[in-house]
Amino acid sequence: MRRSEFLRAVDAEFGARGAALVADLVLTAVGGRTAVQAMEAGVPPREVWLALCAETDVPDSRRHGVGRLEPKRR
Description:
74 residues; mainly alpha; 4 helices
C-alpha cells in the first residue's frame, strides 16, 4: 500500500473525520503514535492502515484492498 492508497482508504472509510483520526488518534500497534507520526517515522502505510482499522473496529471485510484504484481498461 502506498501513502496515496492509505489516504484514499482513510477517506473512503472515515469521510470527513478521517483527517482528525490520522492526526490525533494514538495507535498502540505502531508504538503509541498517531498515523501521521508513524508514517513519518517510516512505518509502512499498510501497517498503519491495519492499526487504524483495529483501533476503530473496522470490520475485516473492509480492511483489505481499500484505497486502490481500479485498473485501467484497454
